[in-house]
C-alpha cells in the first residue's frame, strides 16, 4: 500500500530465504555453464583437428595407394570426426538448456525483487474502456500482468489477462481454481521444466496457437482422393509391368500409353497436392515442436497431485496421447520433405502418386488432430495461466489465499493488506473492514500520504482473489463483488473530451453499474473526485455524488483532499471516515502510510511549499 524505510532483521523471511536459494541455484548454473563452454571449445578444437587429420590421410592415401585404399581410409578417418560432431552437439544442447534454466531462475528473482527490466513478459497495452484495468495497473508496463505472466503461449497470457479483468466473477470458478493454484505452487520443478520445454519448443517467442487452429478448421477434405489413389496405384503397377515386359522383349512398347493415362489422371488431381509443401512447412514450424511440451506432460509422474493430474488428463490417455498422433505427422512430413530433392521427387511421382498419397495422409492427420488438438491446446493454455498464479504464490510465500464467500458479513475483512507491486521493504500493510451494504468510506489525507496506493491495493487484491490467486495480506475475506474504479481518468483530445468530462462519464458509468440488477453488489474506488473543476463546484458535486451512492447496493471508498466531505458522516451513518497522516522531521516530510479511523487532522500542501522555498503569505 504505502512505503516505509528498510527493516533490519537478523532472521530471513520465507521470501528472503527462497530468494537466497534461487541465488545459489543461479551460481551453480553459472559454474555448469562455464564448464560446458570449456568443453564446447575443447571439442570444437578437436573437431577441427580430426577433420584436418582425415583430409591429410585421405589425400596421402589417394596418391600413394589408389582409390580402393582411399575409400577405406577416408571412411575410417571420418569416424572420429563424426563422433566429435555428435558429442559437440550434445554439449551445445546441454548448454542451451542450462542457459534457459538459468534465465528462468533469474526471472524468478526479478519477480521477487520487482526488477522490471529483467522480467521478460511483454507489456499489454492498457484498456481504457475497462471498468478497472487502467486504474489498478493490471495491464501495461510494470503492471500486475507483467509481474505474473510466465506463459510461453499467447493464448496462455490472454487467458491470465481475462481472469484478472473478469467483470463477472463466479464463486464456483474461484473455489475450483484456488486449490489447483496451491497444488501447482508446491510443484516448482514441474512448472520450471514445463517452461523449459515450452521455451525450447517456441524459440523464445510467444507462441500463437490460433494459426494452428485456423489451419485445422480451414483444411480441405482429402477423403475424395482415396479412389483416385487406388486407380493411380493400379496404373503404376501396370506401367512398371508393361515396361519390364517390354525391356524383356515379351511385349511391344505399350507402357507409354498407360503412362500417358496415368499422367493425365495425376495432372487433374495434382491441385490437391499443391499446398502440401506449405502445409508441411507450417506443421514443421508450428506443431511438431510442441511435441516437447506434450511429451513432457505425457511422461511426468504426477503422483498424488490429483487436480494437476485431472487438468493434464488428455495427455495421459494411453490410446490417444499426443505423441502417437505427432509420430504420424512426422511420417507425413518425411514424405513431403522429398520435394526438397527435385530429381528424386520427379522420378517418385513418375512411378507412383507420391504427392497425392502424402496429401491424403496429411488430410487424415488433419482430421485426427481436428478432434483432439483443440483440447490439448486448451489444457496447455489453462495450465500456463494457472502456472503464472502458482509461480506468484511460490515466489511470495507470505501471500495468502483469500476466502471468497457468496453472502454474509462483514463484506470485506482484510489484515495487513498491501500492494503487490510495491517492494517488500517499502510496503506497509493495513487492516480494513467493510461491514454493511451501502457503506461508503471517505479517506482524507495529505499529498503523498498513501490514499491512492491504498485504493489500488484493495482493488488489485480483489482482482487477484477473483482470478483464483493469492493476495498480499495476512488474511483476506471478501464477498463476491463487481469492481468499478475512477482513479486514473484519461482525457481524450482526439475524441474531444476534457479531463473533467471524462471523469463525469466515468462516474456516470458507476451510477449505472449500481442500478444494474445483479446478485453481486458493486465495489467502487474513487480517487480525488471531481478534481477537474473549481473548489466550490467540486465540493457541491462531491457531496451530491456521495449522497447518491450511499445506502445503495454497493460499497466503496472515496479518497479526497476536501475535508468538508468528512461532515457527511454526521448526517449519514453509512458514511465512515478514514485518514492517512504526515509529519515533518528534520525539515523533511515523513509518512507512515498507516490507515487510521476518523478525518485527517493535518494537511501538508503549505508544508511542502515552504520546504521547497516557495513564498507563503498569511
Provide a concise account of the structure shown:
This protein has 618 residues and is an alpha/beta fold. The protein is 56% helix and 10% strand. Helix 3 (154-164) packs across helix 14, helix 5 packs antiparallel against helix 10 (291-299) and helix 12 (322-337) crosses helix 14.
Topology:
Elements: H1 14-113, H2 144-148, H3 154-164, H4 171-185, H5 188-202, H6 210-218, H7 225-247, H8 255-268, H9 276-286, H10 291-299, H11 306-311, H12 322-337, H13 342-351, H14 354-395, E1 403-405, E2 412-417, E3 430-434, E4 440-445, H15 451-467, E5 475-479, E6 482-486, H16 499-515, E7 522-527, H17 535-549, E8 554-560, H18 568-571, E9 575-580, E10 582-585, E11 588-591, E12 596-597, H19 605-611
Parallel strand pairs: 1-5, 4-8, 4-9, 6-7, 7-8
Antiparallel strand pairs: 2-3, 2-5, 9-12, 10-11
Helix pairs in contact: 1-5, 3-14, 4-14, 5-10, 7-8, 9-12, 12-14
